[in-house]
Amino acid sequence: MTDKTPTSRRNFLKGSIAAGGALAATPALAAGDPAITEVQPWANQLGEGVDVAPYGMPSKYEAHVRRRDVPWLTADPVSSVNFTPLHELDGVITPNGLCFERHHGGTADIDPAKYRLMINGLVEKELVFTLQDLKRFPRQNRAYFLECAANSGMEWRGAQLNGCQFTHGMIHNVIYTGVSLRTILEQAGVKTNGKWVMPEGADASAMTRSIPIEKALDDCLVAFAMNGEALRPEQGYPVRLVVPGWEGNMWVKWLRRIEVGDMPWHHREETSKYTDLMANGKARRFTWEMDAKSVITNPSPQAPITHGKGHTIITGVAWSGRGTIKEVHVTTDGGRNWHQARIDGPSWDKSMHRFYYEFDWDGSPLLLQSRAVDSTGYVQPTKNELRAVRGENSIYHNNGIQTWHINEKGEAENVEIS
């Protein structure tokens, strides 16, 4: 890997000052900017008082920052998906109202007073918990990403969806509050032949998945809050399962039952779906872990470069289902030269990481890519490297390197490099 050290922001600022200019100087400022010289409405009249919005909302000027769907992807919105606007976000925590939705039978509307969680199967004693019962157990707070196995799935055969929100937006990263699944299972007493658990959702699709007991007793949570507040209905209110680092379909929402068994159940979501069809016609099964992945969120097709030539900040997110992100590399020339990006913010296990790379753009076309390296040493592959092993039949677990082409105007497009 070649590493060409970028111009530091400090040196860039020194150069700007030495040249007698300012970082964001414009002709309007030089001539007298009305936004400064004229009194604005918000400065000469009272604003609204407290409690006008008892539940706070974003500024009206941020109304464009929202989840979006692609109508032609699915036949019906009750079994569909919308996408997190990654290109509008910074940091590592996803606001609750922007976390992508994926439903198989629509959003369940559950009265918390009537909520029950049942534990049955190969246990010493079958139990039923209310929501208040669960809240009496010792609580944990953990930040994890949740990624749908089909995230980037439309890109297997080539560039298709022109927007970071649509290519990579089936992911969010929040702080969950809940109870260790291990604690709950210990209350019931798992029998020696209990090798698997099957969580079941209370929604109309009755979502079920088989999870090995080792994972269930490791880091899984039964969560009732995210980012400090109760789960949103579309995120499984009042209770969902959290399965860190593993594909989102296993994070059963509206959790109503956990059965302990001696073998996997092979239900609908792990036979007809969520397996990986290989080139030879056979399917990989139990491919739970989400491999290391990254994407540049700005600039990208929905977030072009608008300031013209000069100091430019590239930013994006990286994550791995096997641990933390050790390094992120960025290229502006399609992989000929790679530069180490700066990771900023917390580096939590199985959580998103935010990276930045700064350089002086001369206005020439760019081919932007990012490449993540996780704490196990795994390096994010190119799409062609992935296809060489997996073929082109799957829609799941596409963690290939994403390419954005930036033209002279700063406009971005989803492309592939052969």
From TrEMBL:
Q: Where is the Moybdenum cofactor oxidoreductase dimerisation domain?
A: 285-402
Q: Which Pfam families match?
A: Mo-co_dimer, Oxidored_molyb, TAT_signal
This protein's cofactor list reads:
Mo-molybdopterin
Q: Which residues form the Oxidoreductase molybdopterin-binding domain?
A: 104-264
EC number(s) of the enzyme?
1.8.2.1
What are the record keywords, sorted?
Answer: Metal-binding, Molybdenum, Oxidoreductase, Signal
> What domain of life is recorded for the organism?
Bacteria
Which residues constitute the signal peptide according to the record? Answer: 1-30
Molecular function GO labels? heme binding; molybdenum ion binding; molybdopterin cofactor binding; sulfite dehydrogenase activity; sulfite oxidase activity
Gene3D superfamilies attached to this UniProt entry: 2.60.40.650, Oxidoreductase, molybdopterin-binding domain (3.90.420.10)
Q: What class of enzyme is it?
A: oxidoreductase
Answer whether the UniProt record assigns the keyword Heme to this protein: no
Task: Tell me a GO biological process for this protein.
Answer: sulfur compound metabolic process
Q: Which NCBIfam families match?
A: sulfite_DH_soxC, TAT_signal_seq
Descriptive protein name: Sulfite dehydrogenase
The encoding gene: soxC
